[in-house]
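Thread: "does anyone have the structure for this chain?"

Original post by V.I.:
We have the sequence but no experimental structure in hand. Need at least a predicted one for the grant figures.
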Amino acid sequence: MSQLARMVSRVSAWFWNERLWFPEGLGWADLEDKDGRVYAKASDLWVALPIALTFLVIRQIFERFVATPLALLMGVKEKVRLRVSHNPSLESFYCNTTKNPTQSSIESLCKQTGCSERQVQRWFRRRRNQDRPSLLKKFREASWRFTFYLLAFIAGLAALIDKPWLYDFKVMWDGFPVLTLLPSQYWYYMIELGFYGSLVFSVASDVKRKDFKEQMVHHVATILLISFSWCVNYIRAGTLIMLVHDSSDYLLESAKMFNYAGWRNACNYIFIFFAAVFIYTRLYIFPFYIIYTTYVYPLTMYPPFFGYYFLNCLMMILQCLHIFWAILILRIAIRFLSANEKVDDERSDKEETDESGDELEEKEEVKNGLVQNGYTIHNNNHRKTE
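Reply from O.Q.:
Generated one for you, tokens below.
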């Protein structure tokens, strides 16, 4: 145990080395509370953990008592999904092999089950639909995020509206790193960090979209950026970054809510407004003002150090994700403006429908008594002649 303790001590001493995180001549001693001035401390970040757990509880209450009634009020209609009959062979293949069988696999399954190709294809189509999240679940998740992002944006704007670095980004470095921590900055940081922590905790139950990996990278990079900027007192830069991100997120979630409720025009026009705000804040303000101020301006004051590179590396990761999402957003916006089509989230899996040929075959099965209570009854002793 003593060797382990010494190893942990050495790693801790290396990790918190002043030369890694501060410019030459500055260090942790400059961030000790004195003369009535309070500074951010790494130990403060533990407060975000109970806040994250509290968010999980609040979310459950909100979704049940606020989001669900709101969904009914807005007319969110669930599509009736036909459930598949229990078929051990097909279920085993679906769970253990793949949800999208190839043609050769379908032929093999036909031989095992005595079903036709169309019956097997329809079974897998309906089985995939059963696993897809319902509209109500999507609506509740979007309404929860909309509520948080809107309140966070309002709170962040209220905390920064009278701060000079909101209007002149270079001011964020005046006196760095000896910058007094304000109560509004403390709670803004802890609540944002707690919320993103709750998103990581709930990832297993949230709706999984096609950009799931990119979302996880974004959440992790955001948590690291918030935590790191707190520890080394990049708090002014951190509050600006959070405000820029919150400025468009609530618009996207509101567009999703209207989309799930079937309010096409409201969804489309809110999405176009969101696209404009997203592109302006994430592809213009963020790279050309905030990143410029954190990458170029500090070099006029201090020689580069590890913390400088680490901060800007995390910001560049976020910027790459912004470009990735901007491409998706522009594709949707251009399609809508050019053809007046309905705005759809390209990250979501689409509900699969039975083809007309399958529907005719199913009617024939009903006529022949092969379907009961919505389930197909397969007679393994009956085989179609090839």
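V.I.: this helps a lot. The domain at 79-133 is CATH 1.10.10.60 (Arc Repressor Mutant, subunit A).
O.Q.: and The CA atoms of residues 221 and 314 lie 6 Å apart.
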